[in-house]
């Protein structure tokens, strides 16, 4: 598989994960993006964040333990910024806003739920969004994550009656696409060694449905 590498040096590798590939290797031996990159580099790389199998987009990997520790701290301290693009079934009630919820993760079902009170296993989730365009009953939305909870974007939009297109698990009735219309569009962070600010972005595949409804408009 040809991997789209956006940047690499002795400390980090930045690439675009295609749809249909796991972030980490599976127990059955299936290679994830981390395994493919490690094979390419001839040494094990370090996974810092994940994207679901059916989600594409920009990811960064650490090439050594020191860089992994520095970037993991940045993520934990909120100094690692992730911007997503998504296509929703229906249009959000407001053109822009902030969603704050309490999410419960059911590990057995690999599913998250919005709940109304804090209890064991519940964590706060927050994001902000802006509608970038509307077409054929769908909206393309730009999302900045404040927190990184399991399926956060998917469940927060679904709870407001605008599930992501193709996300059957969270309520979409659009079976035209076999993938969830979610893409990691941009990441921004400081280099773990020299501290310089880095920003990388990559468009979703605007040749496929439902992204083709929006004509490549990623003026974020």
Features:
single chain; 220 residues; mainly beta; Pseudouridine synthase; eleven-stranded mixed beta sheet; 3 helices; 13% helix; globular
Secondary-structure blueprint:
Layout: E1 4-8, E2 12-17, H1 33-41, E3 46-47, E4 56-62, H2 65-76, E5 81-89, E6 96-106, E7 111-115, E8 122-135, E9 138-145, H3 152-158, E10 182-190, E11 197-201
Parallel strand pairs: 4-10
Antiparallel strand pairs: 1-2, 2-4, 3-4, 5-9, 5-10, 6-7, 6-8, 8-9, 10-11
Walk me through what this model shows:
The chain starts with a strand and ends in a 19-residue tail after the last strand. The chain has a single domain (4-214), classed as Pseudouridine synthase, CATH 3.30.2350.10. It is mainly beta. It is globular. The longest helix has 12 residues, at 65-76. It has helices spanning 33-41, 65-76, 152-158, and strands at 4-8, 12-17, 46-47, 56-62, 81-89, 96-106, 111-115, 122-135, 138-145, 182-190, 197-201. Strands 1, 2, 3, 4, 5, 6, 7, 8, 9, 10 and 11 form an eleven-stranded mixed beta sheet that branches. The mean pLDDT is 94. A hairpin with a 6-residue loop joins β10 (182-190) and β11.
